[in-house]
Amino acid sequence: MPIDPSVAIGAELGTAEFSWSASDVLLYQLALGAGADPLSGRELRYATEQDTVVLPTFATVAQNFHATEPPKVSFPGVEIDLAKVVHGSQSVTAHRPLPASGTAVARTRISDVHDKGKAAVIWQETEVVDGAGDPLWTARSSIFARGEGGFGGERGPSERIELPDRDADVTVDVPTLPQQALLYRLCGDRNPLHSDPAFAKAAGFDAPILHGLCTYGVVAKAVTDAVLDGDASRVGSWSAKFAGIMLPGETLRVRIWHDDERHLVTAESVERSAPVLADAVFTAR
């Protein structure tokens, strides 16, 4: 079924009530590599119940944390084979510190659909409020569907973040585990692209790749540690575009430039000297 932007754009995808526990948060943050130094008080705040801090990137998994089925790309006006889809971009704005456990209501809509010729980009926006109706977070994401363009839609803007003409103010190398994707999939994303070698090969990859949202969270933690000394309650927003794949077991090189009240970030695979995240912006409260 071809994409129909007249149906898709603005389509409401419904509301959903969901809950999460401290154990969900701890598993998520362990799946990002938290606790690598089990004697570090900062790491233990991510990885134990003692004075737990919650990375706002938990918002990307909270609603579907206990999902056990592969996701489907089936929306009003959009029907796409999962094997053609990769994450395009992601942003989370935390309206206040995320609690370690709670119940919330999410409302999601398709905010835009862009026709890139050989591919389609579908944007979703999710507003999340607590039981009292007070805002918790806003998430915005795009998926890139190869071979699904050419349906006559708007191409959309091309937005780039200009980096300062100097060396990064901070550079951090973050190793990932060979089993990182297998651990992260327990946070609700069972896409076989990240666990099944045959599926990954059919999708055009030599091996299963790391979830884009895992990389997104790993880098967010690295920046939070470097800029805020691990105080995740002070993170205001985090946005990034996915510029390339990350393979489990590779090392991420995270570069940070301080730019007035925001921090500009890039991330690349050290082993392949290949970009992984680009046009990334981190802000603190």
Automatic annotation (TrEMBL):
<protein>
    <submittedName>
        <fullName>Acyl dehydratase</fullName>
    </submittedName>
</protein>
<dbReference type="Pfam" id="PF01575">
    <property type="entry name" value="MaoC_dehydratas"/>
</dbReference>
<dbReference type="GO" id="GO:0044594">
    <property type="term" value="F:17-beta-hydroxysteroid dehydrogenase (NAD+) activity"/>
</dbReference>
<comment type="similarity">
    <text>Belongs to the enoyl-CoA hydratase/isomerase family.</text>
</comment>
<feature type="domain" description="MaoC-like">
    <location>
        <begin position="164"/>
        <end position="273"/>
    </location>
</feature>
<dbReference type="InterPro" id="IPR002539">
    <property type="entry name" value="MaoC-like_dom"/>
</dbReference>
<dbReference type="InterPro" id="IPR029069">
    <property type="entry name" value="HotDog_dom_sf"/>
</dbReference>
<dbReference type="GO" id="GO:0006635">
    <property type="term" value="P:fatty acid beta-oxidation"/>
</dbReference>
<feature type="domain" description="Peroxisomal multifunctional enzyme type 2-like N-terminal">
    <location>
        <begin position="18"/>
        <end position="147"/>
    </location>
</feature>
<dbReference type="Pfam" id="PF22622">
    <property type="entry name" value="MFE-2_hydrat-2_N"/>
</dbReference>
<dbReference type="GO" id="GO:0004300">
    <property type="term" value="F:enoyl-CoA hydratase activity"/>
</dbReference>
<dbReference type="InterPro" id="IPR054357">
    <property type="entry name" value="MFE-2_N"/>
</dbReference>
<dbReference type="GO" id="GO:0003857">
    <property type="term" value="F:(3S)-3-hydroxyacyl-CoA dehydrogenase (NAD+) activity"/>
</dbReference>
